[in-house]
Fold each of these.
Amino acid sequence: MIEFWLAAGLLLLIALSFLLIPVLRGRRAQREEDRTALNVALYQERLAELQAQFEDGVLNPQQFEDGRAEAARELLADTEGVGPARVSSLGKALPLLAAVMVPVLGLGLYLHFGASDKVELTAEFSQPPQSLEDMVSRLERAAAAQPESAEGWYFLGRAYMAQNRPADAARVFERSAALAGRQPQLLGQWAQAQYFADNKQWSEKTQALTDEALRADPKEVTSLGLLGIAAFEDKRFAEAIGYWQRLMNELPEGDQARAALQGGIEKAREQLLASGAKIETAPQAKSLASIKVSVDLADAAKATVLPGDSVFIFARAVSGPPAPLAVKRVTVADLPITVELGDVDAMMPQLKLSNFPEVILMARVSRAGQPTAGEWVGRSQPMASSTRELQQLTIDSPDKQ
């Protein structure tokens, strides 16, 4: 923030110079004009003396003319280099008044229309927060400075949940959903905050939010987890198992939440057994598809690429949407490299590797950092998405799109 005000002050000094320099020049010109007037007065006084001496007979006509010529030469020497008299209609008061008003008016306009608060926030966000309270305070000020930013309200809601302030979180999630559209993920977060704000009492509002979220996205994880919790608390253990099992199917292997979910499912089964109910074997979570691929450059490509060029490695469905199913980004300097493309790398939940039977592997070098266009590309033959063998992929063809 100090750097900003220093820069603003420097610009104001430059602006003031355009107003004050003419005033200073005017004072210098006035001094020149005063000196010229004095020299003219002295010249006229000298001529009067010569005229008096001539009339009194002290000087003869030749001496009188020589004296007049000498006085004229002295006057010309003293006034040589002096420009014509300056004519000014502004005077001194107006430029000085403008010199005072320019910075005052500029500062007032900036404080009213400017973004000093955003500049300060940007500088503050460049430093890591010292505590959760510090982070929440920053997010609150960021949301106030940019009230139309759905992302700002969303992150503030997550911070409120971390502070165990679900009522405040529900309020800002509602604001975020109003700005960004009623996206399933936002509705799920809003429903979760509302549930805890109501002291874990299920309400019609919470039910409506989760229903809307799952209609838009049947795999929305927050809503599935929340419905499982509500069903378990209401002793509807079979429903809790169903919701949690659906959630398990969406979580990648190794996710820490899987262990907690599995524990909840086991407790629900124990409660069902204790009540004498029969338990149907829950379907196992669908295994995640994953393909390992080793990527290298052909000699022809090595001669033209740069170490910092981006390399996009991705899988695309043989029959399906053109969007990549899984993507990894490296650089030319990382090659050769072996990566794993799988469901965990999906760009969208509905576009997973396991959802398509056949895929093609591709790798593209793009100096501009664009995954859709570049200089060199390599393609594999179609293969099953369940392939487990290591695949070799060489970037060997000019990318002609």
Amino acid sequence: MAFVQAIVGAYLRQGRDASGALKAAQITPSQAQKPGARITAAQMEAVSGHAMRELDDESLGWSRRPLPWGSYGMLIRASLSAPSLGVALKRWCRHHSLICDNVALRIDIHPQGACVVLQEREPLGELREFCMVSLLRNLHGVACWLIDSRLALQRAEFPFAEPAHADVYPTIFPGPVVFHPTDEPAQGRLWLDARYLGLPIRRDEKALRQMLQRALPLTVMPYRRDRLLLAQVRQALLTQPEAGRSAADLAGLLNLSARTLHRQLKEEGTSLQAIKDAVRRERALELLQRGRQPLKQVAAAVGFLNEKSFIRAFKGWTGQTPAAFRQGQRM
């Protein structure tokens, strides 16, 4: 209900009555005054949709300049012709800055993955949480829709203290969620596997017109379908690393032939070896950051036969040796 209260606040700042939006979602005024109360996804969709149209502002009050109804549909349309998800998201972020000037969005690439960064250009104050939750949820939903599959999040980070309703965040952003109060300028971040950015766009203008007839579910709840074999392979390698010893073993675990496994991964713009490398790299970074194990033990833990081959691979991933990386984390 704290998010509904933010919507009611948008009405109050315009000197308008929010009762119509609350009624559309079957929320009573007394319920709306209880920040700890809960509503369904359908109610959130209803109150948001009514308010966006009535206020003619798809930001629902957090943008300094209201975003007229249809603004986000325009951003998706401008990204639809991109050759890959990475290009589409960069285009979406760049165009967003043309219609909204108090926050900035960008995509950063790091050794540990891709990061969607939402940064305040001017302090959002009490609107910080509502802005960052709604805008990052929107962008993640659009990304999933563009490739027609759920994109797993490595983690979500928010630059404010853990709210009383923090337990709802893993529902909105499946995966680890981190809260850290910070000085200005504040940044919210979504982390995901950088290889997702190479996936092809699977939507067209016809699909966009159909989606825009009921677009709000993309911004309210995570995309429900996970169609990517990439995600299944990655999860299998994380939970059952012994299955990665051969393509045949891994394919059998996923009820596929080895030939089908390689073909489908190629269609998704990746390969089994690339996913193995990404999982090994992620695990290696985690062990080097959090522990003091000898490099020989780290190498064995991530699947290398000896320390020398691990050092060579790690340097190819990050541009530095494991020892130099670990030293940098301690400084």
Amino acid sequence: MAEIFPQQELMYSDELPGGAHWSMIIRRGITLRLTDIEGGANVGMIFFNPQNPLERYNAPDTLKCQHTFKLTRGHCLYSDMGRIFCSIVEDSVGWHDTVGGNLSTRSLSEKYQAKNYQDARNEWTISGEHSFFVELAKYGLTRRDIPANLNLFSRISPGEAGDIEFVNNHTKPGDSIDLRFEMDTLVIMHTCPHPMNPATEYPSKPVRYELRKAKPVEEDDICMTHCDENRRGFQNTTLYHLQGGY
């Protein structure tokens, strides 16, 4: 059951079942904590500027400006305007996937037993693609608006043949990540399986999400000081707010 405490540090808490989707506009100065309840979860996620949805999460810029292939504490998630949607201020996992993509409806039917809601009710199986479509439609967005997504709690690594393989058992129960939002952001996410997960049965792993009041960003902030590019990203975001951005 959802819990709401608007005047406390922990403002809102709820659980998202496995194979589900969710969206919300998270305001600047709020931290979103995601917790893998059982271990083995995957959270597909994309971001938009709610004031101008043409501004959205940019995976290539996020990686190249921070000289990384993974996401973890100290990294920022960038928009295609060079601004920072959010910063990873805490992370017990140490590696989150940025390039693995999204489970398509076609891949779902090829890999798992597809179950519709009419027959299976809450045990139905859906794809990450379907989940994004449903949430995007709530804000007047469509298929063509989907940027490359990130997959929190999942990891991929090079195999012996040089290909990319999914890492099983990457997370344990209770692992969490904190995203501190630096600007108002439309967050769209799902808990559908990673597209490279080799499981033969549809993995349905729940995630707890909590909204907390963030602490002010200090000059020695780990995300701001991670690299010169991040410092400029924070400056770009501050300038956006000075010009009336929300």
Amino acid sequence: MVAENWTIEGIDWGRFDPSKVDPDILLLVKAASLVEYNGGDYATYLSNVFSDDESFCDAAELWAGEEVKHGEALGRWAQMADPDFDFQASFKRFREGFHLHLQAEESIRGSRSGELVARCMVEIGTSSYYSSLAEAAQEPVLKEICQHIAADELRHYKLFYTHLKRYLEKERIGRLRRFLIAASRFKETEDDELSYAFYAANSPEGSDYDRRYYNRAYINRAFRYYSRKQFKRGMAMMWKAAGLNPQSRLVDVAGYGLHLFARWRAKQVLPA
């Protein structure tokens, strides 16, 4: 059963079954553990952007704490699945090579409403991703962890959406602008953060970072696990964040199109 206030200690780690570990999912989990564990940096960025909004800053701190917990749980599982994986060393490597704009005082999205639309998109992607991994995973402990994280990310979407509605009363950015921000954030699925996390978690020490190679290595694996159902649900949530009708027929069409695109991307051959 998925609990809202789950703890790492409350997971039944004794159920871990190494015979059911999928090697490709393991690579993805290692990378995801680093991104999630880096939640504190995002809280710093958001606290700068919303510095005079105490209510939001408090919520962002709680949100970041849950993200860090996700990273800890995934990192612990990954070390059980692969005793050679050094979670802390990999995280240090990730932090040394990937940096957020922590000194920014204004949103890179042009407004606070735009920032919240982008945060909604991130939570849509992660909720769908962990739901997909939970469905695909055969290892029982990982399945439980992913179910917990997917539920958390859905709550996080609702959190950011609630604050978005509050800010839209002040800023009133149009639906087209909100949609374009949402679409651009979706495209950032293929940005350096996930590629570098995959490199930091899975490449040999001393190897060079080839963005194209590691981006493809991540995408090839991650996109194969998404179901059409997850894309449809995610598209409806995106439409809602953009101020559009989530029940629109276009949601089904766009979700189906994205599913076809993901299947195509998952089949692309890795560059030499």
